Amino acid sequence: MTLGIIPLSDPSLIENEKKALRAAMSAQRLAVSAAERNAAADGLRVAFSAYARGMSDAALVAGYMPIRSEANILPLMADLAERRIATALPVVIAKGMALEFRRWRAGEPLEDGLYGTHHPVGMGVWPTVLLIPLLAFDPAGFRLGYGGGFYDRTLDAYRAGGMSVVAIGVAYACQQVPHVPRLPHDQPLDAILTERGLLWSNGAA
């Protein structure tokens, strides 16, 4: 069976395809060496810096605290703080709900959250840019996550409500695949950030 070409009329088969791709891409991401991870963390910071220079004073970038071998964006977040760009982290409220976001700067304390996450305390905020971890991505801007649907629900709520947000997936370049299997509820990203640069979903670098 070829990944990514199952008809949308059979969602259960697409979910099985996603499950198989998750296993394969989880193993591939785990295989990235420590040296490659460190180099990629700096590459992500540098690649995002040009985009950050064009941000307005009202910008608020929500990142994530890396878990499960995710690409490390902490140097990127620290760089944003030095540029006086407001930053935040996601909060998992409960299964089946959209994410909340709370302000956070590098070095500030966190508390334990659901599913092995860590998040800030305080009031919720509305980010203008989301940096989103993933297992796989394709040139069309679709991502494969862990299957919880948190970011899909969050993006759907933002977009349905007419709220402006730039959704950027964060990954190692080796996580790209020709096609991510998708269902109607899967939300596309505006761009993908890897250690090689920022790639917009229309293919522009």
From TrEMBL:
Keywords associated with the record: ATP-binding, Ligase, Magnesium, Metal-binding, Nucleotide-binding
Instruction: Detail which positions bind ATP.
Output: 18-22, 143-151
Concerning InterPro entries, the annotation shows:
FTHF_cligase, FTHF_cligase-like_sf, NagB/RpiA_transferase-like
- GO biological processes: folic acid-containing compound biosynthetic process; tetrahydrofolate interconversion
Q: Does the keyword Calcium apply?
A: no
Q: Where does substrate bind?
A: 65, 70
Known catalytic reactions: (6S)-5-formyl-5,6,7,8-tetrahydrofolate + ATP = (6R)-5,10-methenyltetrahydrofolate + ADP + phosphate
Which cofactors are required for activity? Mg(2+)
* First-level EC class: ligase
Its EC number(s): 6.3.3.2
The organism's superkingdom is given as: Bacteria
Q: Name one GO molecular function term.
A: 5-formyltetrahydrofolate cyclo-ligase activity
Q: Which PANTHER family match?
A: 5-FORMYLTETRAHYDROFOLATE CYCLO-LIGASE, ATPASE INHIBITOR/5-FORMYLTETRAHYDROFOLATE CYCLO-LIGASE
Q: Which NCBIfam families match?
A: MTHFS_bact (TIGR02727)
What family does the database annotate? Answer: Belongs to the 5-formyltetrahydrofolate cyclo-ligase family.
What protein does this entry describe?
A: 5-formyltetrahydrofolate cyclo-ligase
User: What organism is recorded for this protein?
Assistant: Insolitispirillum peregrinum
